[in-house]
Amino acid sequence: MTEPRPADPAAARHRTVALACAALVAGMTGAAFAAVPFYDWFCRVTGYGGTTQVAAAAPGHVIDRAFEIRFDANVNGIPWRFRPEGGPVTVKAGEVATANYVIENLSDTETLGVAAYNVTPELAGYYFTKLVCFCFTEQKLAPRETVVVPVTFYVDPSIDQDRNLRSIRTITLSYTFFPAKSEKSKPVADAGTRKTPEKL
Question: CA 24 to CA 28: how far, in whole Å?
Answer without folding.
Answer: 6
